[in-house]
Design brief:
By secondary structure, the chain is an all-alpha fold. The chain has 2 domains: 97 residues, Rna Polymerase Sigma Factor, Chain: A, CATH 1.10.1740.10; 147 residues, Arc Repressor Mutant, subunit A, CATH 1.10.10. Helices cover 72% and strands 0% of the residues. The longest helix has 21 residues. The two termini are 31 Å apart. Bound molecules: zinc ion (ZN).
């Protein structure tokens, strides 16, 4: 628990607007980054952060201290995103602003393999189901712990883990779907089905000593899983790097 955050929030709850502004200053870049991943345009992301800010100010007194302040703020941001999505549900879908950019890049660039991984990741993220995108953004981009992510999504830790695993596989599939020029590399890029989930936990450092030893042993013998782990690690590192990069 960040005591500075908790201190600022408790002063904000007592009506201290300056403390509230200071608190936001510590987290609004992350709130904006989360909002951007769930909206069609920068303008809408700004609206979402503004609405989330207002909600947080009004709800400051209800914070119970059973999660990190950051988790609480991002949970509020996520709820505003969901409300906004529901409002938009009947409207015609907006054109993905990345679509045009990608087409231009693809036309000018004969080797899609060199298209920036960040760009491919952003496109792949947009191709995921909302549930999958939420868990990836919070856990793998924002870098929340497994427990924090579960709190923000209002699901159990076990449900979070299995959703995260499914989402990472879907993301990897989406990223590779964009690598049209690598048919050879695309074949068989997933590891052994029976160890994939443990491998994911292993990479998060959430597998017990016994399980980790079993994975170590498997990796010594299995090139396919070693390659899969390497690919996934590269994707997760890029996700973290791309969080605050402008869209
Ligand atoms: Zn294997």
């Amino acid at each position: 628990m960040s005591s500075a955050d908790a201190e600022l929030l408790s002063r904000a709850a007592a009506g201290n607007e300056l403390a509230f502004r200071a608190l936001l200053g510590r987290h609004d870049a992350t709130m904006r980054a989360v909002a951007r991943r769930f909206s069609d345009a920068r303008v809408e992301a700004a609206d979402i952060v503004q609405e989330a800010t207002l909600c947080a100010w009004q709800a400051a007194r209800t914070f119970r201290g059973d999660s990190e302040v950051r988790t609480w703020l991002l949970g509020i941001t996520l709820n505003v995103c969901r409300r906004s999505r529901r409002r938009r549900a009947d409207e015609p879908a907006a054109l993905d602003p990345l679509e045009g950019h990608h087409l231009v890049a693809a036309a000018e660039e004969p080797h899609p393999v060199t298209v920036d991984l960040h760009l491919r990741l952003r496109r792949a993220l947009r191709g995921l189901a909302t549930e999958d995108r939420e868990v990836i953004v919070l856990r793998d981009m924002v870098g929340m712990s497994g427990a924090e992510t579960a709190v923000a999504l209002e699901i159990s830790v076990a449900a979070m883990k299995s959703r995260l695993h499914r989402a990472r596989l879907a993301l990897k599939r989406e990223v590779e779907g964009g690598e049209a020029a690598r048919p050879a590399a695309r074949a068989d890029t997933f590891g052994c089905a029976d160890v994939l989930e443990d491998l994911s936990l292993y990479m998060d450092g959430e597998l017990g000593a016994e399980g980790a030893a079993a994975i170590d042993e498997h990796l010594r013998e299995c090139d396919r899983c070693t390659r899969f782990g390497g690919d996934l690690a590269r994707i997760l590192t890029s996700l973290r790097e791309s969080l605050l990069a402008g869209d």
